[in-house]
Amino acid sequence: xxxxxxxxxxxxxxxxxxxxxxxxxxxxxxxxxxxxxxxxxxxxxxxxxxxxxxxxxxxxxxxxxxxxxxxxxxxxxxxxxxxxxxxxxxxxxxxxxxxxxxxxxxxxxxxxxxxxxxxxxxxxxxxxxxxxxxxxxxxxxxxxxxxxxxxxxxxxxxxxxxxxxxxxxxxxxxxxxxxxxxxxxxxxxxxxxxxxxxxxxxxxxxxxxxxxxxxxxxxxxxxxxxxxxxxxxxxxxxxxxxxxxxxxxxxxxxxxxxxxxxxxxxxxxxxxxxxxxxxxxxxxxxxxxxxxxxxxxxxxxxxxxxxxxxxxxxxxxxxxxxxxxxxxxxxxxxxxxxxxxxxxxxxxxxxxxxxxxxxxxxxxxxxxxxxxxxxxxxxxxxxxxxxxxxx
Length: 391
Description:
Layout (H helix, E strand, L loop, with lengths): L2 H6 L9 E10 L1 H13 L4 E6 L6 H15 L3 E7 L8 H9 L3 E5 L17 E5 L3 E5 L20 E6 L3 H14 L19 E9 L5 H12 L3 E6 L6 H12 L3 E7 L6 H8 L2 H7 L2 E5 L8 E4 L2 E5 L5 H6 L1 E8 L1 H16 L1 E4 L1 H5 L3 H20 L9
Parallel strand pairs: 2-3, 3-4, 9-10, 10-11
Antiparallel strand pairs: 1-7, 1-8, 2-5, 5-6, 6-7, 8-14, 9-12, 11-15, 12-13, 13-14
């Protein structure tokens, strides 16, 4: 039995491995947005959407039209939107949704007097249709993820289309957040989706505050157990000490460890500089670091031999401390081959940072790394012990 199979047998206090699922890897908005809209159009019972980013625009218009059409034909449509991530969803769009009968709730409304409690955000991206299909990944409903006019460079993103028994766990997560955000009027009834013959094993991993670190704990276990390779993709890289130690340890024992990060295209340059201060130690240990060049890399995925995880979780300590996150874990060689090919395509469009080149970087860059690294440490100390609520 391989190391990855051994890991799959370990218990977890939230969700267990479920057999008989079907997972499809969808790369970029041109692949997953049409599929999501088609499934909403075919909905007959319910559509549940939990979304961090939802901003008014051309893509939002398409989803609003699909959701309101579903509600008008009698489908139960519920939306949980993070109140910070949906800040730019216009009031008129909210009125259109509610006017059609869509049930809408905001997660953790922003309030000035709550101070640090405002940092607790619902960063998940989850669509469930009829309890028979779900989408999980890192994409928001904003125009940044879609090339709608042929002139935009959409953010590089990954989603997974899910069918099978693991859908019961995704529905349970939605119910918990829905009830947390208002009256507890939704019951988690098992959907009992069909078992796929010859399907894939899958497990839901969640994060929600310092006490609930299932996503990172699972990733670290699999990095430590990797025998051949461990590749990680994340747009923001301010890793915990445990994660850095796992990456260095795997590289030193001969595992091909690669970290794929956002390059010059990023929406948070300060975070990029804060994370770069860790490069020297990782490069000295043999970790390979790549920066994606063509556009903003927003994909959150990892593969360790035959195990993969894709979802909403940025593998950095800020997200893990404050945000609700959820990833789909898959332990199947067929799916792993598809994820590995995706990484290889992304590596070809990236620049690898070598140790000698890195040690000769200009002083101006070092100063930026020091300053934003200091800011990261200060904010971490300031917010220590004030983690957000878990779902």
